[in-house]
Amino acid sequence: MKKIIRLLLLAYFCLFTRAQAQKTAALPTIKTFIKSSAVKHTGIFNIYLQEDKYYLELPDSLLNRDILAMIVINKGSAQVARDPRRRFGFAGDVVNEGVFKFNKNARGTIFIEQSQFYIAPEKNGNDYYQLLKDKEGVLFFTLNTVAQGEHANLIDITPALNADLPMLSLNGAKEELGLGAYQANLSKQLAITSYKNNIVFRSLRAYGAGALKPESSSAEPVEPQSRQDTQVSLETGPTAWEIGASWLLLPKKPMKQRFADKRVGYFVKPVKDYISNPLRVEEKLLATRWKMEPKPQDLEKFRRGELVEPAEQIVFYVDKNTPEYLKPYFIKGVNAWQKVFEKIGFKNAIIAKPEPTPAEDPSFAIDNINYSVISYKPSTTANAYGPMVVDPRSGQILSSHVAVFNNITDLLQRWYFVMCAANDPNARKLPLSKDIMGRLAQTVITHEVGHTLGLRHDFAGSCSYEVDSVRKRDYVAKNGFGASIMDYLRFNYVAQPEDGFTAEELFPKIGIYDEFAIAWGYKYFPKDNDAFTEAEALKNWVTQKRADPRLFYFPEGDFYDPRVQSEDMGSNAMQAGNMGIKNLKLIMKNMEEWLEDDDDQNFTMMKKMHSAIASRYNEYLAHVLKNLGGRYADQSLVAEAKPNYVPVSRSTQKEAMAFINTYYFQEPSWMFPSNITDKTQFVFDGQVSADYETFMGKIFYKFSAISKNQRIVGQTPYTVSEFFDDIYQGLFADVDNSTPISAYRKMLQRSYVNKLLTAVYNPASFEADVAILLKQQLDKVKQSCDSALPKKNDQASKDHLKAISDMIQQWKADHQTKQSS
């Protein structure tokens, strides 16, 4: 019986094979199938348009080759609603990228498959690697072969072009753009253009109504939105987009990888590692960077230490829609990085140029992956960002589309006024001159291009220098006032008028950390070392360099290290805040004179700047707050089996509380003088008070972090008890007199008591000693209110104190009832 089954199976196999051979033989040749009237696009693939169908000639040599698809919006769509924090949706936006490949199975079927990336052994001795190799990849689409050549298949790609595939459409950006269902009947192919190493499919893509989620994107910080904006998603109507899908054939041999070091801030691409550990699969993080190597003929010069031009220059083209006055500043912002690359042996490594005309460069197109652009967006959002298109096999950056939104100029103007008007008379003349505005935009471009070079934010860069040092012109001339342009290092706001700074000296510049980071990422090793050998050499180099505190880096998401903050300056937030507030007071004192405009009866500019001053004041408070319960992180301690953080010292936390007492517990009445508020109508109540009440919660709940820090052995801690007593002294120590309590102080006192009552109602969620301290604070506050009540002469103060006392008494009664039951 088994023999009969085997014979039947053999007969079936022979018949199937013969049928397949007949089917294959029945296919026409490509030469006979394609008519002379067909439109032909010659490139990495030959593509034919014949009788409203598109055919792709796929050589066998391109099977299993990785192809990177970059999706670019060529024309955005008008939308019913747009979340202003969303960065995508404009012409020139790269909204998605991915890598795929064409493959063929044993039956000869052609399909589009998602590529997989890993570091694998040269020999297949690793079991994990063999399992991965045998695993089938994700299939996107199966294609119909209509003709054959000697070493090629002709496939009908019309169905793929009409589908909503991520390598051809906006499929990968639906959530970001708020797109609904794909509408194939309203979509169509527009054009196909072949370039030297890529091909671009241009199409119209239509989508039904959808919704934008309210979450903010990961772009640069933008103008704060109202609370109402963040509560609900925004419905969008049907949309239609003209897009370009650029397919780039990736080289067979990727650029040499550089494994990321967490002590240097680079964007990364993860890849599975099947070499380092034979017992398990590990993950390596690849630093993203451009390919920076000398030309072969210049290698000896490079070795001798002579400056040489790289084999592949990084070139940015400034969008033709950019206002003319800004174009030269954008170019300067890019070229500022040239000197950094010179320090590692490359001249003219990066350069910016105006967008070429078709006559100057017929290949230029915003959706051609071979071109990096800086595009100007017609958006009311104050924003800018610098993304990258990356080869995930190696981390090589292939292209970048920096975006600058129109309204960022308005934000820059406000920043410059509130931080520099005390020192630069030209900052008081609003609107700012085009020269100043261009110089401000230049700093934005330098920062964003830093991102496109692979650099992450370095929010520790602003804490490297002493506050006294950055008030000295000779020191700043030599060192700048921060270690990194990749910090949000806006302007030198601690400099005082008597320090004599020029306007140019108030601007941030590329710093020593940036030079260090570029050297780490782009240092070229002439020897043919592998990535593992180079990683070890670089690791040791970083360890040596980190002895310099200016080269400290820690990820921007650290919530506890007060060194890791945006918008701050100097190693001491309290000293810097004092200087910054001193300048704000000077501006407020002179605001009416500096911003008086007879042509503006609504005082529009004054309103903006008054609001900007209040916002900046809050920033200084926030910088100080991070010191409370703060911890200094240090990655180097992890390897030594020690706690990888050290609490902020007791003296520094006491200094922070003293600052909060001076600038928060005491009313900043200087910020709201009647001569200004009469014109701006910007007052504390309503517009500012809600933020101040919120800030009280941020202060209060620091007790949790302070409590954790108390448990670290060998420290002299700032205790929770001391913390609560400092708040009490700031808020209630002066109530025991006849002076009326101001509305501001009442607000803070009510807010603090509410926080106490809310926390103490849930003592199980806190350690016992903290719960006791909360109860003691309530007793102390009640005693103060009861003692002060008969001494007050005004009824409003009496009512306020009695209300607080009664609230606490009610809590005690409720608490006793619960205990007795």
TrEMBL record:
GO terms for molecular function: metallopeptidase activity. The keyword Signal applies. Keywords: Hydrolase, Metalloprotease, Protease, Signal. Residues 431-737 form the EcxA zinc-binding domain. Gene3D superfamilies: Collagenase (Catalytic Domain). Residues 1-21 form the signal peptide. This is Zinc-dependent metalloprotease. It comes from Pedobacter vanadiisoli.
